[in-house]
Specification:
The chain is α/β, with parallel strands linked by helices and about 400 residues long. It folds into two domains: about 5-45 and about 310-405, Alpha-Beta Complex (Aspartate Aminotransferase, domain 1), CATH 3.90.1150.10; about 55-305, Aspartate Aminotransferase, domain 2 (3-Layer(aba) Sandwich), CATH 3.40.640. Helix content is about 40%, strand content about 15%. The strands form five sheets. It has a seven-stranded mixed sheet, with helices on both faces. A four-stranded antiparallel sheet has the order 13-14-17-16. A two-stranded parallel sheet has the order 1-15. It is globular. The structure holds pyridoxal-5'-phosphate.
């Protein structure tokens, strides 16, 4: 008899985006003339930058001739791309990361989801609440949690991110082995300072723990004092893995390319406490289960690092950051408390006592604007909504005018 992985039975069906879609569809049906503006789902809206498109085309043309055709590529990704990443994203910022510590992939969602395979089944895991659901659900699937009770899985150490701690995960009271962090954060939009990250690196070193650091939104950091990589913190290369993506940085959500940094100094331990190279484990995992990102896509990603590519993605990100600023000003004018919106495309708005679905319905019904109810990201998100800056300027301005009128 073919039996199912019963851990999947523990998963809380994520009705978030289908619930949103249903409510939006019903509203549209009852209000056929309403022009709905979507500031909900975290997807970019602007086209790929011209430098990226040109390189993408070139890559496709090379595939058309036997002399330049490419079959299976190098396991960790093409050196031309890994070298640009290492030099530009790390060495130029004083982080000692080399190209052979970089693993190119088809995105940060798979990597953040797959990475937990490398660890024992009974480690203690700390996860922020609210959170990008991938970290939690992949550990549920792997059987590291108990059942779901009162909004939470057993055997997970939740780090509450609430107004009282400025939405910053705090070091847990009990010992943990694996810590998921994401800055700039999705959904709260908060960023960690150097001192805050250094405290986590110290904790990991003292406790032989590991940090999984999701930096998918690093390109939105404009404040020069904020670290863009965890490897800007001394000692981090021994205790942290970093995930990045071209999705939000350069509009690759549908094109698919990202990378994971696993420093060679990064160590995990056997049951007897002997050190094991994490780089070796991830290399083994990826070369067994993954066959790389297509050549034209890696060429397209390389173009992000050309001078024109850099200029174009800076403009792209600036557009979204200015949108975020417009949203922040509106929310402020209306007297709502909020986090994020600076160095981040997300604004985390306090519903002033409203439940997140109530606030969602209010914005939809009165302003025809779609946001994301915070409860979908965890129990601590229930009093909040997330507003995303990923839309055209015109739509953002119009959405904010409508919200001002409606409230
Ligand atoms: C969008 C996003 C990613 C990137 O996912 P891709 O698979 O690279 O598109 C990773 N982490 C977080 C928190 C995100 O919001």
């Amino acid at each position: 008899m073919i039996r199912a992985n019963e851990n999947y039975q523990k998963l809380q069906a994520s009705y978030l985006f289908s619930d949103i879609a249903q409510r939006v569809a019903l509203f549209q049906k009852n209000n056929p003339e309403a022009q709905i503006i979507r500031l909900g789902i975290g997807d970019v809206t602007k086209a790929l930058p011209p430098a990226v498109i040109a390189a993408f085309h070139e890559g496709v043309d090379e595939m058309a001739k036997d002399t330049t055709f490419k079959g299976y590529g190098p396991e960790q990704g093409y050196a031309f791309l890994r070298e640009k990443i290492a030099a530009h994203d790390y060495q130029a910022r004083g982080a000692d990361i080399s190209s052979d510590e970089i693993f190119v992939s088809d995105g940060a969602k798979c990597d953040t989801g797959n990475f937990q395979e490398l660890f024992a089944g009974d480690i203690k895991i700390a996860i922020p609440d609210p959170v990008y659901p991938v970290y939690l659900d992949t550990n549920v699937m792997a059987g590291r949690t108990g059942v779901f009770k009162e909004g939470r899985y057993q055997n997970i150490v939740y780090m509450d991110c609430v107004k009282e701690n400025n939405f910053m995960p705090q070091i847990p009271d009990e010992p943990v082995d694996l810590i998921y962090l994401c800055f700039p954060n999705n959904p709260t939009g908060t960023c960690a300072t150097r001192a805050e990250l250094a405290a986590w690196v110290d904790y990991a070193q003292e406790n032989k723990a590991l940090i999984l650091f999701d930096a998918a939104y690093e390109a939105f950091i404009r404040d020069g004092d904020l670290p863009r990589s965890i490897y800007e913190i001394d000692g981090a290369a021994r205790v942290a893995v970093e995930f990045r993506s071209f999705s939000k940085t350069a509009g690759f959500t549908g094109t698919r390319c990202g990378f994971t940094v696993v420093p060679k100094d990064c160590t995990v331990f056997s049951g007897k406490g002997e050190p094991i190279s994490l780089h070796g484990l991830w290399h083994r995992r990826q070369s067994t289960k993954f066959n790389g990102v297509s050549y034209p896509v890696q060429k397209a990603a390389e173009a992000v690092y050309s001078p024109e590519g850099q200029k174009q993605i800076t403009e792209l990100v600036s557009l979204y950051l200015e949108n975020a600023d417009i949203i922040c000003r509106t929310v402020e004018d209306l007297g709502f408390g909020y986090a994020g919106g600076k160095n981040s495309p997300y604004i985390w708005v306090d519903g002033q006592g409203r439940d997140s679905w109530e606030f969602f319905d209010l914005l939809l019904n009165r302003a025809s604007v779609v946001c994301t109810p915070g409860g979908g990201f965890g129990r601590c998100g229930k009093p909040y909504i997330r507003i995303s800056a990923f839309n055209s300027r015109q739509n953002v301005v119009q959405a904010m005018e409508r919200i001002k009128e409606a409230l």
